[in-house]
Structure formats: C-alpha cells, structure tokens
Amino acid sequence: MLLAFSIAPVGAGESVSAEVAEVIRLVRESGLPNETNAMFTNVEGEWDEVMALVKACTEKLAESSPRVSLVMKVDYRPGVEDAMHSKVERIEQRLSRA
Q1: d(C-alpha 19, C-alpha 84), whole Å
Q2: At what angle do helices 47-62 and 17-29 cross, to 10 degrees?
Q3: Where are the alpha helices (H) located in the chain, listed in sequence order?
Q4: Which residues contact 68 (CB under 8 A, 6 or more apart)?
Q5: Band of pLDDT at residue 75, cut at 50, 70 and 90
Q6: Domain boundaries, the chain
Q7: What is the model's pTM?
Q8: How far, in Å, CA of 80 to CA of 45, rounded?
Q9: pLDDT number for residue 2
Q10: What is the mean pLDDT of residues 71-90?
Q11: Structure confidence by residue, pLDDT tens digits, 3-25
C-alpha cells in the first residue's frame, strides 16, 4: 500500500513547521519507506502498519493542538512492492523515449 498524507495542526498560528517536523520524525523512525516533499509525505507498507503510523502522527499533533487536519490518498495494490519508486521510474522511462 502506498499512502500520501498531509497533516497539520489547526489553530497553531502562522507557522506549523515545528509541529510537522515532530510528525515527520515519527514517520522516519517507523522504519517504513517514506519520502517527504513540500505538500505530502509518502509512506509504503502493509495497511495496518501504515494506518497505525497515521494514527500515531494524528495523536502526536493532538497533544499540542485542539484540532488536526489530515488529508490522505491511498494506492492499494496487494503484492506490489516499492511502488513509491517504480511508479516514478516508469514515467521517467517514457519521458526519456520522447
């Protein structure tokens, strides 16, 4: 399963980078393959472990914020591994043929 998620505290002020950094720390410490960009964090793994991580991230933000905003997008394809990289590699291969 490949999950893209964006999470942020609501009502924390103009900058939420400190709070988001704590969530990214949890993601990186999870041992699951992950990437973070300006808008989302991608995580790959089994359904239960990925959802447990999202729950932990949500609860971490809820410790310091009365409200948490969470957006998720899932690509669920049992048996597929390394989708985080292989999907991009297939596109890059097609682009290089042009």
Answers
A1: 25
A2: 150
A3: 17-29, 47-62, 83-96
A4: 7, 8, 9, 10, 58, 61, 62
A5: very high
A6: 2-96
A7: 0.88
A8: 10
A9: 97
A10: 92
A11: 999 999 997 667 888 889 999 99
Residue 2 DSSP SS3: strand
Q: Which two tokens stand for residue 46?
A: 């089994």
> pLDDT confidence of 39, banded at 50, 70, 90?
very high
Q: Domain 2-96 belongs to what topology? A: Alpha-Beta Plaits (3.30.70)
Tokens of 35: 């990437």
- Return the H-helix or E-strand segment holding 51: helix 47-62
Identity (one letter) of the amino acid at 22? E
Residues facing 4 on adjacent strands: 42, 73
The closest of 38, 47, 57, 35 to 77, measured between CA atoms, is: 47
